[in-house]
Amino acid sequence: MLKQNLQVVLFFLISNCIYCQSALIKGQVVDEQKNPLEFVSVALLKQKDSTLINYTITDIKGDFSITEAPKDSLLVQLSYMGFLTHTQNIVYNNTPLDLKIITLKESPNVLDAVTISAVVPVQVKKDTIAFNAGSFKVNPDDNLETLLKKLPGLEIESDGKVVAQGNEVTKIYVDGKEFFGGDPAIVLKNLSADAIAKIEVIDKQSEESELTGVDDGNKQMVINFSLKKSKKNLGFGKFSAGMGLDKRYFSNLNYNKFNPKTQISVIGKFNNINITGSNIQGFLENANGIADESDENDDDFDKTGNRSLSGYLKTEVAGAHIGHEFKDKVAFNADYFYNLSDNSGNSTSKRISYVNANNFNYESENAFDRVSKTHGLNFNYKDRASSTNRLSITGKVNTSNTISNSGKDGEFSNEAGELTTTNSQHLYNENDRKAANFNVDFYQKLKKSGRSFSTGFNTNLSKQDRINEQNTFVTRNIHRDNPSEREIRTSRDETFNSNTFGFNFKYTEPLAKNHYFKLQSFLKSRNDKEDIYQLKNTVTNNNEEELLTFKYKHLENSFQTRFAHNYVTDKLNIFSALELQELSRKFGIIEENPISRNLFFLNPISTIQYKPKRGRKYRFSYRKAIRNPRWSESSTVVNDLNPFYIRQGNPDLKAEKMDELTLNANIFNFKSSTTFFSRIQYQYSKNAIVQSIEIDDDFVRTRSFQNSGDRKRLTANFSFSKKVKGLGVRYTLKNRNAYRTSNSIINLQLNDVTSKDFMASVLLENTNKNVLDFKFGADYSINDTSFSLEEDLNRTYKKQQYFSMFDYDVSKKLSINTQFDYIVFTDNQFSSDLSLPIWSAAFSYNLTKNKNNICKLLLIDLLNKNVDVYRRSTTNYFEETTSESLGRYIILSYTYRLNKNQSKGKKRRA
Q1: Cβ burial 419-443 (10 Å sphere, 16+ → b, else e)
Q2: Same domain, 177 and 266
Q3: N or C: which end of the chain has fewer CB within 10 A?
Q4: pLDDT, tens digit, for every residue of 648-666?
Q5: Are residues 270 and 197 in the same domain?
Q6: How many domains does the chain have?
């Protein structure tokens, strides 16, 4: 497969060289003072229908050139921030054409920070890359998530995280204002793509840098969606509803009204087709490599990652958002969100466990039912009106109630395959949680240029009440003449209270030119309390009762002071600091003498960022971090609610020390339409906190923790994308690698674990997506996991995925979308290798010319091959769980677009 990929890339490169030799159209762009203008967008269109043929930008001298132009009557369009758009008719005869000097006139109106032409797909300005939404094909009922997936350099990962230019997107804005707290998942799934004019990916400076004008190197990746003019000041949205076979249904509602001062939005969802948002995707979830089981809880089957979305899921969602700008740069935003999730189903699990000389297997039939209700209120107030100070106040209140019932019927067998023990478990869990946080940040610029300070306060409060009931029936040695039976009923009531308070202060003093001294202090205090009442009843032993009650407290304080030097120029930013950190802990049962720990550390920190020119950025960082043991890892109390999985802490644990090196490279070349992003990170931990597992002859697993050896992690991610001139396609190559070493202690013996991951992918897609959007490609990944104690259990897991997507507007009313994936899984530890073809399709028909009434037929998993497989590797077992899934279903839906401004006789492309 690698050889085939190289041949494809070579073909692209040869084609690129051939087309680069064609004739060109060139010119120079200047302003009215004859100064050359850089980064002016130059678009070449057909005069007859304004179809985009090609585009480029001017260089630092104002020069531009366009190749691959057809013989025709053409239109040259130039656009630039703060200037009037310039258009010029030309006749091209396939011979070089020099347009000489073109002068742009300044616009009398104040425009946005980034203005994008009506046809140019992408534009670069300072730390912003702006995409014209009209250049990417979207259907009238698509949401923003669908639109983002079409943009080069952006990815939406399986967990919903948005990654732009190799960095996670932390906030999403609409017209520069927060929408539902800026939560990417809510914004992307609940706003229509056809309402957007442009998408800006911004490498945003910190509040302090924006206020003082001194770049501190602390940036975050944000995305801003700008609405079409037709969507402003008037209400817009859509309502969708659908019914299908096997009583499947869904309905979606969103309504928005945005004006320059006030933004109001309402959303609602109701469905039973296993989707939490507006999209239908993610049919298959798999886990590779070594998983972190430090928070594993066998008492709650649905807690472990993606299995919570197995089976059958009913979702109800309601939300409202209001934002108001009292005056310029002074705004308040608030939103409320309600979510109900009802998840039930059946599954089967296979587990291969190894405990040195006494390995065993475990198989179980599982049933689960989980109902969760959550309420969330978010608000923020931001005052940026003053030129010398800024104020930000944010808050959040959440409540949730979760009721879970699950059952397991399991069988233990030894290495010879002999059945030795069976167990039947029923678990009931009710979890009520209330949480709130409040943050205040203030930034002040002082009189001397570069001198400033900032201060902030934050608090997090939470309370959790859990009711746990478990009934376990165990039959031991049933293949013998005299088996033994035992029934244990346990109830456990838990109350957790956690309070965290934090304070920070930062001061910047300018030294010599471009040099700054910085003093930074951080204070954090966390107080955890646990109140436990547990009653255990052994029914088969004359109803013998065992009562456990206690109150546990864990107090942790951290104080950090940094003395830093910062060197700042337009191209180079160097930050180096020495951090003094004091950590103290006091923990234990309240009635007993507490255990105290006091530690002091010196932590070096350094960051170098280099931007040689626009579109290129390199960043290197080093930091030393200290991780204190979590309160659950050092707890002195034993949790034996599940008699087959006993958890206890280790009060003698020491702090874990970690050194981290990170190198990032981001390159965006507009003229060649090339993007390259890479991230290499190395982490080395000393005194690593690892699990200690003991398993007895009755298969009871007891987990604790110890400081043992070192932990290493090396990850390297690369992405390269390039437009092939003349062919109208773009190819993307990606590669991800990970090397991890960890260890655990299995029955008092050290087990060294090494995990190696490799992933490579190739994607080919068209660049002009106005009418047709297609993509196809392949992903290949492999994981090798090896163990020092059990070399015969070393695991090799492979996944191959071949995919294609075709979205075509057959006419102005009819569009067709089809997706086909072929996935192959192989695993040397499990015999159930899978080859899964997954095919889905949709037919969308506009009932009216204005595209406000849409009928859609969804055909999901046409081959009825859909399954949900979850594979897990830990330090002492492999596990495979196969769950029920919806399989094939068909839904016919109707969508009505709620647009108040219906322009008659005006044709617009969505």
Answers
A1: ebbbbbbbbbbebebebebebebbb
A2: no
A3: N
A4: 889 999 999 999 999 999 8
A5: no
A6: 2
